Structure formats: C-alpha cells, structure tokens
Automatic annotation (TrEMBL):
Identification of the protein by name: Copy number control protein
Span of domain AAA: 4-178
UniProt lineage: Bacteria, Bacillati, Bacillota, Bacilli, Lactobacillales
Entry-linked InterPro entries: AAA_dom, DNA_Partitioning_ATPase, P-loop_NTPase
Amino acid sequence: MTATVLSFLNFKGGVGKTSATALVSYNLAKMGKKCLVIDFDPQANITALFLKTKYQNKDKVATIESSLMTALNREESLDSITIEIEDNLYLIPNAVDFSMYSRFLERNFMDEKERISFFKKKVDSLRDKYDFIFIDVPPTISLPNDTAFYACDQIIVVLQTQERSLQGAEVLIEYLQNSIVDAYDSKVDILGILPFLSKRSASVDKEILDAASEEFGDENIFNAKIMQMERVKRMDMTGITDNPSDSWDKKTHAAFKGVANEILERLGEE
C-alpha cells in the first residue's frame, strides 16, 4: 500500500473544495480504500465537519486533543494526532494556531528548498498506511500552501461554472507549473478539472465548460460533474449524513461516488 496524495484546488474561495475533499474521501472509504484527510486550513472547516460526522447522533462533545501545528512544533509523528472518523476514514485535525505555520518554516529553515519540502517528508512517512491522502488547503497563494502542493502527487482543479472560477483555475495551473514544478522540480501533476455546476444557469454552465474544454482540453475535464446541492450545505451543520432511505443523501453520495470512481479510473486503479 502506497498512498496517492491529492488536493482539490482553486484560488477562488467558496467553489466546493472542502466539500469535494470530504465527500470523495468518505465515499472512497466506503469503497474499501483507506483514506487520510489532512486539514491544512487554520479555519479548520473540514475538521469541524468530520468531528460532527464522527459524533453525530451521540451525546458527546466533539473535541480534539492536539492539532497539526502542535504536532509540528513538538516534532511528533502525525500518526499521534490522527483521528478515526469512520471505517477507513481518518483525519489529521487543524486549529487556528496553524496561522503560525509560515513563521515556523521561516524560523526553522534558512534554505528555501528545505522549507518547501518540509511537509512532504511528513506526508511521505504516512504513505504506507493509506491508499489515499487528501490535503485540504485554503484558497491562497502562500508559503504554507506551497509546502502542501509540493507534497502532492496529483491536483484536481475545482471549477465552479463562473467566470472568476475559470480565471482562478487558469492562474492556479500556471502558478503550479512556474512556482512548484519548474522552481523546485516537483512531480505534482494535474489529474483533471472537476466542474461544479450551478442550479439554474444552464447556458452559463455550458459557456464556462466550453471555455474550459478549449483552454485545458476535453480529456482533462472530469466526466463526473457536481451540481450545487442544498444537502451538501446542510452537512456542514450536521456532519456527513448517509441515510439509505433519504433520497437527498442517496443523490448526494451518488454524485461524489461518481467522482471517486473517475479518480480511480484516471489513476488506473479501477
């Protein structure tokens, strides 16, 4: 077992990156793939979502004993703070103190390449324990994010069918090529472009998808596409629900299972 390390990205916020990370990893876990999600955002949205998922319908307070930044400061193994959320699904939680990560890198590493490659070494030590490792990053250009990008094998660009999201995808791909691949000889690659469609603007969806196909190539656009769903927003409050008798749960998981299957297909792991 050697994990593939992935991240869903766009430099525009609110496009569905965290939802995609959570629900794709959840469905891969249901399919028997052992998945780890690393929360790399000091806002800790995916940590909150997964803790709600773990403790939903239980009379318990969802708490964490140690976060990512604490483990890095103490030079602890990331295994020591990993939380089991469901069968085959694990989380490395984050908290607001991760806002100090950039200072941590600058204080501890004088060499720029050592800063960029630091987190990859932490992730590589976990590869033999999982099939997939997902890193959920905030939508910013920053030194902390560069360390996450450098740790990845594959990037999935999340494309909300809006002009700004398309521009964000273009900037992201150019940035990865120039600032990560070329600058540091990274092997990270783009697995594909995952469209998130709007509800009512079918003509706009088509225009953006046509523009994306022209810009990136039809073969690089995921066949699986995610429609904006109210159930996904509800899960932010409740945790991930998976009630087989609930048609909206079934519809939501069917969509993200489709993405999970296409990831396996694109990686040659069907």
